[in-house]
Amino acid sequence: MSNMTPRRRRMVLVGLIVLGVGAATAFALTAFKDNLLYYYPPSDVTAGKAPSDRVFRLGGMVEEGSVKRETGSMEVRFIVTDFHQDVTVSYRGVLPDLFREGQGVITRGRLGADGVFMAQEVLAKHDENYMPPEVAETLRKQHRQKAPAATPST
Amino acid sequence: MSAELGHFALILAFCLALPQAFFGLVGAATRRPHWMALTTRAVAGQFVFTAFAFACLAYCFYRNDFSVLYVAQNSNSELPTFYRFAAVWGAHEGSLLLWLLVQSIWTVAVVAFSRNMPNTMTSRVLGVLGLITSGFALFILTTSNPFERLWPAAPDGRDLNPLLQDPALAIHPPMLYTGYVGMSVPFAFAVAAMLEGKLDSLWARWVRPWTTVAWMFLTVGIALGSWWAYYELGWGGWWFWDPVENASFMPWLIGTALIHSLAVTEKRGLFKSWTLLLAITAFSLSLLGTFLVRSGVLESVHAFTSDPARGRFILIFLCVCIGGALGLYAWRAPLFRSNAGFKVVSRESFLLMNNVLLVAATGLILLGTLYPMILDYLGLGRISVGPPYFSIVFLVPMLPMAFLMALGMHAAWKHAKFERTKVLLGVLLLAAIVLGIGIPTAMYGWHSILSSVGIIVALWVGASALIEPIERWRKSHSLPASVIGMSVAHFGLALFILGATTVESYKEEKDLSLGPGQSTEVSGFTFTLNSFRNVAGPNYQAVESEVAISRNGRPIATLYPQKRTYRVQRNPMTESGIDVTWGRDLFVAMGEPLGNGSWSLRLQYKPMVRFIWLGALVIAIGGFIAVCDRRYRQRVAAEASSPAEAGTSTA
After folding, report:
1. For range B540-553, the mean pLDDT
2. Is B216 within 8 Å of B584 (Cβ atoms)?
3. Residues B539, B78: contact at Cβ < 8 Å?
């Protein structure tokens, strides 16, 4: 190949960039499509708006007194609520340190045919003052709709 | 009293950053030596007062002065002294003060090591740094004052977040900030070069060590964060692609691209405007990272409305910095045309590919990080982008880059023919393929093509990195520090790839319930839970379990993982028990009591996980060695000493 002149080099460069950006966009879109996780509050899940064939995120507050497990079993069940509707969540595994009744939680998993959400992952955040933004948002909306009697007891 | 003194010193530091910016920039523009000389004085004053303000805050923590709001929120009289000091940067306000301190240390370093640069250049660099410093100082003073008083004083503090009470995390923020802030130096150099309208090889030689040192700190900071996450909160994961991590990783990727692009600018006088653009981008991404982490935007875009001042300030600052620099770039870039040519197969091309792939990976990560926030901000719904997205968009550009790297290290400038290394590289690739498939399959069993490709490329790059130093050493040719540094850093990357591939392919995890006396098996290791006992720490209580590990009846280790409850914050915390060898980690973490005396436990087998952080450390060491290269010091020596001495020092 001959020595590349500045002009030719620029052309090659521009060509490469266009090609690269095109490839990257196409590639990103495919990767995106498969890995986007949608978030649904319990109200949407009970209303049937959440998909039954796809992994999604469910968030809300862990209802007081709802955490139950068979003695010695790894499976734990709890109710996630937005103080309007409830969804029962089942999880096998070690719960995060900050998981507690009456606190915000986000779970990732699939909705079972019996309406129980089978969680693959449970997230509670680092800080006890922290509420997942989705949960805060959901609660604010519920708050406006309903009487303030539903405030969480802390 | 010390809080007021600190506050006052901070105001003075801000007041001195302004003349630093003014005299630096205007003095250079109008060529007034006296004004330029004043810049250095302003830097000294600014540094002294910032350091004093920082010391005041540290003193408040040391004395448990709970009449200072920030201390009351982040410390406690029971907190051990070391963590009381680390608590200074344990939350928003103090960490910004640390940021400012690091910024002035970098500025002082620029003054100290810039004797070989023309006055106008130094003065412009200091001027730009002064602008950045004054922006951050103003940010602290107006929105995040750490010296605010609390009246009446709290009887005791709310304690430092237990997650942060850990040695690695105590030094993680200073390292990371040194890296983040360090990126402001190449940025300032880029702006100065654009103002000056001149950018030559000499300029690139001045900027290279600064970039490399900043990048080195960033490397160590990120690795420390990953290590901490692994044993403290990650339940054994080492990278989660969460937005905070991405925020630190993106400047690192661009910094890496910048280092390589600077090499071309220095050696061949090419890629000039591209180098400028990367320098601007690296610092912009550092700022963006700060914005994401510190404004609360990550927790919710709506945090804008809850505390609008902070987010808005950084956003405006970000726009001014990026906008100003890019505007200047648009105006000045045509000055930096370069006319040298190179063949398609040449070191220039390899470095260009390196840059394109690194930038592509960064762009895709940026997209995945910002997309949910933008969508949320526009009210189009709440989504999150899962870690698999990031893994794919990172691996696809990076795997070819690693392969190209093995070749690129041996490509000559202008036109590479690989005459001497062709055969050797081919043989090494063949060996890497045989060993990369053979050894892991023999040791752990077959996993997947992707995992074999990872190990092959790691072996090939590792071997290829050693060719040049060994060859030069055998032929007793000169072996400059920059060559050793490059080889060491690339070898470190090979170690990292090897560790990351192996652990991701062959790790095993098991969550299960165990009672005293019960045992289970993970990857051929028998874990037996012996007993539980209660333990009291300085500011926490804990349940500790004793887990004995054996293999084929031969005892290997006894681990003591804990579940702690900190007295003030009442958060439970998991302290994992890890048995470490180079070949593997055995990891035990306690979950929660399940009734009738048993607990849920997480047991993990992590082969070669240590190579991830070892690799990062070796990469950083490579950077350090490269910075020690003589050519960065030569001119300093020539100017500082008499001509006769200079002659001997360059000989």
Report:
1. 94
2. no
3. yes
How many residues appear in chain A?
154
The torsion angles phi and psi of A90, rounded to 5 degrees, stand at -115, 135
**Tokens for B385?**
């982008």
Please say whether the beta carbons of A138 and A61 come within 8 A.
no
Question: Which residues make Cβ contacts (< 8 Å) with residue B488, sequence separation at least 6?
Answer: B465, B618, B621, B622, B625
Q: What is the DSSP letter of B88?
A: G
Cβ-Cβ contacts under 8 Å between A and B: the total is: 122
Alpha helices in B521-630 (DSSP H): 610-627
Neighbours of B420 (CB within 10 A): 12
Measured between alpha carbons, how far is B427 from B12 in angstroms, rounded to an integer?
64
Q: How many whole angstroms from its chain centre is CA A56?
A: 6
pLDDT of residue A129: 47
DSSP B163: G
Alpha helices, H only, B144-200: 167-182, 184-196
Whether the per-residue pLDDT at A3 is higher than 70: the answer is no
| Cβ contact A4–B343 (<8 Å) | yes
- Contact in structure between B7 and B144 (CB atoms under 8 Å): no
Question: Chain A contacts of B338, Cβ < 8 Å?
Answer: 6
Residue for token pair 């403290």: B232
**Kind of pairing between the strands at A117-123 and A86-92:** parallel
> Among candidates B567, B540, B453, B579, which has minimal Cα distance to B505?
B453
Q: Residues with Cβ < 8 Å from B508, sequence gap 6 or more?
A: B522, B523, B604, B605
Tokens at B395, concatenated? 């691996």
- Contact of A33 with chain B, judged by CB distance below 8 Å, is answered with no
Q: Which residue reads 């720490």 in tokens?
A: B537
Average of per-residue pLDDT values in chain B: 89
A14: which 2 tokens? 């521009």
Q: Over the stretch B474-489, which tens digit does the pLDDT of each residue have?
A: 998 889 999 999 999 9
CA distance B616 to B221: 10
Cα separation, A60 vs B43, in Å, equals 51
- Which residue(s) pair with A115 in the sheet? none
- Inter-chain contact A28–B367, Cβ cutoff 8 Å? yes
The residue assigned the tokens 């200047």 is: B328
Q: What is the C-alpha to C-alpha distance for residues B341 and B303, in angstroms, rounded to an integer?
A: 51
Q: Is the peptide bond before B162 cis (omega within 30 degrees of 0)?
A: no
Cα A105 to its chain centre, rounded Å, is 10
Q: In terms of Cα–Cα distance, which of A35, A40, A50 is closest to A134? A: A40
Distance to chain A for B335, nearest Cα, Å? 15
Beta-bridge partners for B533: B544
Check B393 against A16: CB less than 8 A apart. no
- Read off φ and ψ for residue B535, nearest 5 degrees: -130, 145
What the block records as the tokens of B334 is 């045509």
Reading the block at residue A80, the tokens are: 């996630």
B55-64: burial string, b at 16+ Cβ within 10 Å, e else: bbbbbbbbeb
CB contact under 8 A, A74 and B512: yes
Sign of CA dihedral B539, B540, B541, B542: negative
DSSP output for A41-100: -HHHHHTT-S-SSS-EEEEEEEPTT--EE-TT-SEEEEEEE-SS-EEEEEEESPPPTT--
Please check whether residue B372 is in contact with residue B382, taking contact to mean a CB–CB distance below 8 angstroms: yes
Comparison of pLDDT for B308 and B541, the residue scoring more: B541
Asked if A121 contacts A109 with a C-beta cutoff of 8 angstroms, the reply is yes
**A88-106 per-position pLDDT tens digit:** 999 998 888 878 888 888 8
Would you say residue A145 has pLDDT above 60?
A: no
Optimal mutation site among A97, A100, A110, A125, interface B, most CBs of chain B within 10 A: A97
What stretch of H or E contains A36? strand A36-40
